[in-house]
Amino acid sequence: LVASAVGNAGMYLSEFVEDAYLLQGAAEAGIAPIFFAKQMPFTKSPYVAGVFQFAIISVMVVFDFSEILVFDNFFTGMAVLLQFVSFFVLRWRRPDLPRPFVVPCLALPLFLPAVGILCFMLFHCFVKAGKASLVTAVAFALGTPYGCWVIRREQLRKASGG
Description:
Largest sheet: none
Number of strands: 0
Radius of gyration: 20 Å
Strand content: under 5%
Order of helices and strands: HHHHH
Structural class: mainly alpha
Distance between the termini: 56 Å
Helix content: over 70%
């Protein structure tokens, strides 16, 4: 029993530290706010990213496990939807880009049922989730404008030659 608890704690902490360093890297790349890149002076560990993660986890503890799954499924589904949209936008706007694989045109109609199932899942997660819907709406309302701002800032930086 003790070995199981220590093993689970080790896996949790390794994931926690990995995510803190990923958030630090995103901040250094300009995708996340720069204050997430702050490090401890001696250990060089990203303490702001770690505190931010701890705050999110502390809020998520009050939710039932099924509500956490709804929240997670919603944002996973949104990521898949964004990948589908980017696949088609890049295919139409930039057909000359090198790609690691070629999707045959016969497979393209398979996106329709996949998008239908995905939209149904997103609707179900957003409407039928109880208090997880509120957290999802707030996170989506804050994340979407921030993502648009990051994209616009990068476009302006490229246009100015920087």
